[in-house]
Amino acid sequence: MRKDSRLSRILHILAHMEGNDEPITSTQIADMLSTNPVVVRRIMGLLKESGYVQVSKGRNGGWALMCPLNKITLLDIHQLLGETSLFTIGLTDEHSNCPIENSINYVLETAMTDAEALLLNRFGEITLDMLVKRSH
């Protein structure tokens, strides 16, 4: 199963933007992430809609931060992506009349729901400037 790396990529982009005095282009970001500038523009569009970045056009144009990283949490970015679940463990429903399958599904779903709530709570406590500080 393919992993969704959008959260990590956005965090990477924002952390690099923090130290830049000049706007950074979609091509520069794409090169940094080894991806296509179209993918970058899609991601940056989400950040722009949320007021985290702005874009300027022209010769010296590019993307720049609009919001200090100490005002943005991991939870903010997670919610920006519209994630529905942090875990990719699937429950089976092939034998929905089976009491054992129903019991297993209940226990797994309850555990994953509890774990997700704890993780999202922790995401809300971590600001992006903490990530940058940790890298130095």
From TrEMBL:
Pfam families per UniProt: Rrf2
InterPro entries: Tscrpt_reg_Rrf2 (IPR000944), WH-like_DNA-bd_sf (IPR036388), WH_DNA-bd_sf (IPR036390)
GO MF term set: DNA-binding transcription factor activity
A cellular-component GO term for this protein: cytosol
This protein's name: HTH-type transcriptional regulator YwnA
Annotated organism of origin: BD1-7 clade bacterium
Gene this chain is encoded by: ywnA
